[in-house]
Amino acid sequence: MEIGKTMSVCPVCLARIPAGKTLGEDGNLYLEKRCWEHGSFKTLIWEGSLDSYLAWGSNDAGGKVTPVHANVPERGCPYDCGLCQNHERDGCCVLLELTNRCNLRCPVCFAGAGDQQPKDLPLEEISRQYDLLMERGGPFNIQLSGGEPTLRENLPQIIALGKEKGFTFFQLNTNGLRLAQEQGYAAHLAQSGVSTVFLQFDGLEDGIYRTLRGAELTDVKLRALEACREAGLPVVLVPTVAPGVNDHALGDILRFALSRAPHIRGVHIQPISYFGRCALEIPERRLTIPAVLRRIEQQTQGQFRAAHFGGGGAESPYCSFHASYLRREDGTLTPLPRRRSQCCCVKSSEARDYVSQQWSGKAALDAADPDTASLDEFLSHVVENTFTVSGMVFQDAYNLDLDRLRRCYICEVDSQRGMVPFCAYNLTDVNGRSLYRT
Ligand code: SF4
Ligand code: SF4
Ligand SMILES: [Zn+2]
Q1: pLDDT confidence of residue 371
Q2: For 238, how many CA atoms within 13 A lie in the half-sphere containing its CB?
Q3: Among residues 60, 126, 415, 422, which one has the fewest Cβ atoms lying within 10 Å of its Cβ?
Q4: What residues pack around ion ligand 3 (CB closer than 5 A)?
């Protein structure tokens, strides 16, 4: 039974084609589409009931924000990104791909790092990209990305340049190798102005890393974390979760992160998407939001409950999930009210504003520990002790829903195109051919 319509692409030729959201005989929801040339495709998009699907979307803030200096579309979505006038969100987090080099060659890598000729983005081009972002509505939150961005020796210069241009938040997306191996490097990054480290962290078992990263890395991750802790660099753990590889490990990752809070600020889960370089077979049952939340609840014996989580507010609710908690001294967690527009960057200044809006006056003091004297101390206490679990379900050529894509606020900068939504930039067909990435 069809319950809704959208547009998608053919996974073989990337032609735009109509797609229906259907209720399957097993009670789950699917995206079904047909290319006249390449046949029919059916992909699981929600492992749960229709009611739960509709309830998840019911908190949707909706609305439309036209991007600044938007392009006039010619061929339509998803071929005119830059952003174009049909896009419904301005940017928030922007990835700068500083290099395509990497010190790993992961079997799973959306950027396909190491597959092409080594190329570093020249400083002059980075400067132009910063300018372009300011013209398009910046300053945005900058994600220093790659490849592996720590291979750029001039990372401090790149951050300093961004600061000069008016950017204030720099998140480093890293595999952690250099942080683990080079004495003093974490402190060097902290001094350079890195705000948060997004650390690739797929679990605590070497077998997981062998499959996803091609190397045994548990010890490396632990050493990278220790280096960041010593340098005062806050960390968010970022597991890529693949069914049958590490979907059993979510509980372990969350318990571990919590045991190292507040240095570890939270966990950002990325169920695997089948784009870029991906050596894994696409399973019959890919991981959907309800399936991830069920695993989290089961594997933590209900400490983190599916009911605590909500969908994104700025982006489509079907793109993301998040829950925030106040960590008490006795180790218990109190779920915090849901935020409507929480992006994936962890910005303590915004966190403070948010907390102050949500918790004010006596209610806040009542919720605080009895020895917390003032509202101001309480706010600092809450920000320091907030632990966030979030996730983003990136789209690939099989499950791409253009209604979701038009609301994307996470962009890659492309010197020719401008700002390209992450899921469009990284879209590849079954043969690995990319729509945007050159
Ligand atoms: S994803 Fe957005 S910017 Fe890209 S073509 Fe579609 S509407 Fe335009
Ligand atoms: S990056 Fe992909 S999954 Fe995330 S908000 Fe954008 S379209 Fe949605
Ligand atoms: Zn086709």
Answers
A1: 56
A2: 20
A3: 415
A4: 10, 12-13, 35, 37-38
pLDDT band at 345 (very low <50, low <70, confident <90, very high): low
Spatial separation of the C-alpha atoms in residues 227 and 176, rounded to whole Å? 10
Instruction: Confirm or reject: Cβ of 423 under 6 Å from ligand 2.
Output: yes
140-155 confidence digits (pLDDT tens): 999 999 899 999 999 9
408 lines ligand 2 (CB under 6 A): yes
Predicted TM-score of the model (pTM)? 0.93
- Return the sign of the alpha-carbon dihedral for residues 339, 344, 346, 350: negative
Lowest mean pLDDT among 58-62, 248-252, 410-414: 58-62
Average pLDDT in the chain? 90
423 C-alpha to ligand 3 centroid (Å):
19
Buried b (16+ CB within 10 A) or exposed e, 401-419: bbbbbbbbbbbbbbeebbb
